[in-house]
Amino acid sequence: MESKVFKDGCYVWECKSSYTDPGGEIDVGYLKSAIMGVEDRWMLEGRPSGYYYVFPVNFISNTGRRELERFRAAYAGEVDINFYDRVDMQRLIQNLEKLSSMESLVNYIKQVWMEG
Questions:
Q1: How far apart are CA 17 and CA 36, in angstroms?
Q2: pTM to 2 decimal places
């Protein structure tokens, strides 16, 4: 799955999946590289109010969660950072359905999640 980015004002949702193991754990090396890419973009574009990683077909390992927690801690109080994996999808979809302005994001996540 190719990375997709959805923006709503100052909030960004990025959907990603690991090419090395679709349906398995997100590759930690890939995750570290993605986080560095986000930080580089923020240097050019500025930081959003919220940044949310969605891994609709992958699981986040404990090592991956530690990397994401480091990322979140580095910007605590500046950017609301959160992340969701395949296990979190049902709860996320229910919450996102309340956002009428993000219908394309909700539909995309539903489609990818059901295919995975």
A1: 16
A2: 0.77
Q: What backbone phi and psi angles, to 5 degrees, belong to 5?
A: -120, 135
The answer to whether 55 touches 85, Cβ cutoff 8 Å, is yes
Q: How confident is the model at residue 57 (pLDDT cuts 50, 70, 90)?
A: confident
Cα gap 21→7, rounded to integer Å: 27
109 alpha carbon, distance to own chain's centre: 11
Rounded (10°) CA dihedral 94, 70, 48, 61 = -30
Smallest CA-to-CA distance from 41 within 67, 79, 2 is with 79
Could you report the per-residue pLDDT of 17-45, keeping only the tens digit for each?
Answer: 877 777 789 989 989 999 999 999 999 99
